[in-house]
Structures are given as structure tokens and as C-alpha cells.
Write a structure and sequence with these properties.
single chain, 489 residues, Rossmann fold, four-stranded antiparallel β-sheet
Length: 489
């Protein structure tokens, strides 16, 4: 198919036609989790955003190598260069080996990702498995004059780098503003400038995650791992680097600086960032008491939740907003997503029961064109879903007998919904939901049989009462020449 995909490049701050460096191969690198706790709603958004991109690139016929890292060393508790390693802190609290913590929460993360129907990455490297490669990258940066050693630590010299290149080009930060706004922290006097960042940190005696190096026993800085692993598996230049908007600065900004300092040129052609998740207008956080893990969402075991929400409801909820827009969680929004998802899946189920006519009164070709136009416009899933609901309306109209469809257009409609609902959006039927729908269908059948008897007896009051009660319960009934069809409003 002709490539018309445009994506918003954070680096250029505009939409660009996607043109891979070495077609049909596409290199995609996404920053994965730091595995020291259960995955939460904030983790679900980048996972689903870049799963969507992965799926669509594959649908377009590209050979995609999708690399998503696991951060298991070097990410300190305050996201700076001082403090305790997040994995090590958790290990001490639970009296476990750090890699036990990593394995435990990695397993739980993978389970949640499977529940959300995200495809596994092609490669999932761990930072702790690439210590030697990170040390070699540090040596290259030192050799090129953009890093310095101080008291066993190796720091990136941001000011010197900025004299030759441009530090801040991704986030729009200026080095003068950084100098004015960066406060001195205790224990960082060994830095030439407070905004210099660590490539290698000397391990204190109590630091339990440590490796030998040419500069003494220590551990790598947080930013280094992604520069190292992305280029190891995707080459010195690759197509797309993605992650959450919160990683744009300093993490991704530092990655660019490291890449250029080591090899003299940038590694990434397109930078993509998904926006953040808020809860009732507030940033999600444990301190605010509104922190919701994915397991809690799926079971309803959180005081913020009014009910449990299925993984596909959560996926549909996330896809209803454009990936670059903020996404605000509320029970009302999740309930609306649940109804929308169920309407979509009910229509998909209805597709196989539609009757073919010699006439055709629906324009499926136009619907298909609109769907592709939406997904090609920087993965505009809310517009795509709106078009798919137009398809739902068409399906229901055909079922009710108010529209006609011939065999050719019905095949096109079935293919369209299979491609977009399942292959690209990554939705799927859920057993619990299916069982609930079957039980609901039996109840509706029983009530409609009573209504049918009432109508035969010209008991219009009872007949109208049954329809009204079903409508009040959110169930739409449409009489057809063959009986009736029902759907959730």
C-alpha cells in the first residue's frame, strides 16, 4: 500500500511524512519501565501508543525491529545524579537481591502488557546486561573531549558540548536558562556545572549494585543505557525513538547529546512522545492518593474506582484520545469507554449475521478512505474510532433493514473492521464480556417474548412498558421484519 503516514517529530516540531532510512526495515526504540513496582495507568499509555505504531507499520508491510528496554540499574530516586537506585532501594526494603526485584516486577509488567493485548517487542534488553557496552561508550565520549572524571565519577560536559553542538534542541531548553534555574545540590560540588549529568557514578560502600570499571567500582548513569542499547540493536542511525513526554527532558535530551558526542552525528530521525495521564485533573501520584495500578483497574481494588474495568476497556479508553493529548482518568470516562467498546464489539459480532442484497445503499469505500486518512494523520485514533462508529451505524441500519449491502461491499466492510479493530487498534473480544453479553441476550430474549405475546394480545401498555424499561437500562431495541435487534446505547 502507498505510504501516506505522517508522524509528529518532536525534534522538528511538525508533522513529517514517514520515510524509513533503510526500507523496508524500520528500527523502533521505546523507553520501557523501571521495574521496581507494579505497572500503572501511566505505563499503559506509552505501551499502547507504540504498540499501535508497531502494529500499523507492520500492517503497512514494513519489517519492524521493535526494541523496548528494561531499566534495572542507574535510575536514582530523584531522577538526578544523587540518591539511591530505585531497584536497590526496593531490594533493601523487601530484603531481596536486586535482580529478584527486577524479575518479579518484570513478570508482572509482562502479564499486564499481555492483558492489554500489546505485542511483545522484538528485543527487550536490560541495562544491567550491557555494562561493558556502556563503559565503551563513555570511553568514546571522553576521548572526544565531552566528558571528565571527578572523584571517581564521570560527568558529561554540557557547556563544552554546547559550544560545538546544541544542547536543548529537543526540549527547547537554553543552556543559560539551565544555568540560572539549576540549583546546587549537596554532594555535587565535583561537577563543573550543576547541569552536567553522570555517565558513571562511583559506588558508595553501601551501594549494592556495582561493577568494576577503568574509573573504579561504580554503576552507569540512567541516560546512558538507551544511547547504548538502541544503537547496538538498531545501528548508529535508526528511524524512531519513542517514550513518554516526561522523558523528553532530561532523559532524551541527554541521549541526543551522548550520541552526538560519541559519533559526531545524531542517531534518531523521528522522536515521538505520548502525553501524560492525569486523574480528575491532577497528575497521578502516590502522594496524592490517586495512584492506580493496572491490576487495581482490572479488579476494582482501589478506593478511587467505582468498579473494575476490563483490559480492553482500558485500551479503548486510551485510544479514544490522541496520543499527544493529555488523558484525564475518571470513572465516568472509563464507563463511557466500556459502553463504546461493547457497542463496537457487538457490531463486529453482528457483521457475520448481515444478509446480502442485490442492492447497495452504503458507501464502504468512502468509509475505508476516511479510516486510512485518520490513522495516517499522526495516528489520529479518536477520528479513526469516530469513523468506525459510523461503520457501526451502517451495520445496525443494514441489520434493521433500512440500508442494503451487496456481497462485494459486505466483504469490504468485514475486512475493514478486521483490519482496524483487531490488527491495528489491537482490540479483541473478552471472554468475560462475551459471557456477560450472552447472559444479557438471554434475558432480553425472554423479555421480548413477553412483549411479543403482549403485542399479539394488543396489550400495548405492557409492550411499551417493556421497551421503555429496556431503554432506561441502556438497551436499544430495533424492530425488524425478521424480529428485532438489540444494542447497548
Amino acid at each position: 500500500m502507498e505510504n501516506k503516514l505522517t508522524i509528529y517529530n518532536t525534534l522538528s516540531r511538525k508533522k513529517e511524512l514517514f520515510e524509513p532510512i533503510n526500507p523496508p526495515f524500520v528500527g523502533l526504540y521505546v523507553c520501557g519501565p523501571t521495574v521496581y513496582g507494579d505497572a500503572h495507568l501511566g505505563h499503559a499509555r506509552p505501551a499502547i501508543t507504540f504498540d499501535l505504531l508497531f502494529r500499523y507499520l507492520k500492517f503497512m508491510g514494513y519489517r519492524v525491529r521493535y526494541v523496548r528496554n528494561i531499566t534495572d540499574v542507574g535510575h536514582l530516586v530523584n531522577d538526578a545524579d544523587e540518591g539511591e537506585d530505585k531497584i536497590a532501594k526496593k531490594a533493601k526494603l523487601e530484603q531481596l537481591e536486586p535482580m529478584e526485584v527486577v524479575q518479579f516486577y518484570s513478570n508482572r509488567y509482562h502479564k499486564n502488557m499481555e492483558q492489554l493485548n500489546t505485542l511483545p517487542p522484538s528485543i527487550e534488553p536490560h541495562a544491567s546486561g550491557h555494562i561493558i557496552e556502556q563503559q565503551e561508550l563513555i570511553k568514546q565520549i571522553i576521548e572526544n573531549g565531552f566528558a571528565y572524571e571527578s572523584e571517581g565519577n564521570i560527568y558529561f560536559d554540557v557547556e563544552r558540548y554546547n559550544q560545538k553542538y546544541h544542547y536543548g534542541k529537543l526540549s527547547g531548553r537554553k543552556i543559560d536558562e539551565l544555568f540560572a534555574n539549576t540549583r546546587e545540590l549537596s554532594g555535587q560540588q565535583e561537577k563543573r556545572n550543576p547541569f552536567d549529568f553522570a555517565l558513571w557514578k562511583k559506588a558508595s560502600p553501601e551501594h549494592i549494585m556495582r561493577w568494576p570499571s577503568p574509573w573504579g567500582v561504580g554503576f552507569p548513569g540512567w541516560h546512558l543505557e538507551c544511547s547504548c542499547m538502541s544503537q547496538k540493536y538498531l545501528g548508529e542511525t535508526f528511524d524512531i525513538h519513542g517514550g513518554g513526554l516526561d522523558l523528553q527532558f532530561p532523559h532524551h535530551e541527554c541521549e541526543i547529546a551522548q550520541n552526538v558526542a560519541a559519533q559526531g552525528h545524531e542517531a534518531v530521525k523521528y522522536w515521538m512522545h505520548n502525553n501524560m495521564v492525569t486523574i480528575n485533573g491532577q497528575k497521578m501520584g502516590k502522594s496524592l492518593g490517586n495512584f492506580i495500578t493496572l491490576d487495581q483497574l482490572f479488579t476494582g481494588d482501589n478506593n478511587v474506582l467505582e468498579q473494575a474495568y476490563s483490559p480492553m476497556t482500558v485500551r479503548f479508553f486510551i485510544l479514544q484520545a490522541h496520543y499527544r493529548s493529555p488523558l484525564d482518568f475518571s470513572n465516568e470516562a472509563l464507563k463511557a469507554a466500556e459502553k463504546g467498546y461493547e457497542r463496537m464489539m457487538a457490531a463486529v459480532s453482528q457483521l457475520n449475521r448481515l444478509k446480502v442484497s442485490n442492492e447497495n445503499t452504503v458507501d464502504i469505500a468512502a468509509l475505508q478512505e476516511n479510516c486510512f486518512e485518520a490513522i495516517n494523520d499522526d495516528l489520529n485514533t479518536p477520528i479513526l474510532i469516530a469513523h468506525l462508529f459510523e461503520g457501526v451505524r451502517i451495520i445496525n441500519s443494514i441489520a434493521a433493514g433500512t440500508e442494503k449491502i451487496n456481497a462485494e461491499n459486505l466483504d469490504m466492510l468485514k475486512k475493514l473492521f478486521h483490519n482496524f479493530v483487531f490488527d491495528i487498534l489491537g482490540l479483541k473480544g473478552e471472554e468475560d464480556s462475551s459471557a456477560s453479553n450472552q447472559a444479557l441476550g438471554k434475558v432480553i430474549d425472554a423479555m421480548m417474548n413477553i412483549r411479543k405475546t403482549a403485542r399479539a394480545n394488543k396489550d400495548w401498555a405492557t409492550s411499551d412498558s417493556i421497551r421503555d424499561e429496556l431503554k432506561n437500562a441502556g438497551i436499544q431495541i430495533k424492530d425488524t421484519k425478521d424480529g428485532y435487534e438489540w444494542s447497548l446505547e
